[in-house]
Amino acid sequence: MSVPKWFSEWPKVEERAHTIRTWQPLLVPGLLQTARYARAVLAAAPQATERWIEEAVETRMRRQVVFDREQPPLYWGAHRRMRPPPAGGR
Predict the structure, then answer these.
(1) Cα–Cα distance, 64 to 45 (Å, whole number)
(2) Considering the entire predicted model, what is its pTM?
């Protein structure tokens, strides 16, 4: 498995970004994922190999250095709950 072509330049965009906005209705956004969570998400890919998973997790974790900058990007994320909130005493 390989990185999608459209994504190959994305880490460079993140490095220069002043603001990052994202909408992730089902998953925690990649920049906010822990290694454990990323590994579980990536392992769900039908043709994922252990090597590919570990390389992808390492790459994902390296991308998080954007938050270590002196002036990190402002991060706006929207995430929909996986389950609706309880209602009606349930």
Answers:
(1) 22
(2) 0.76
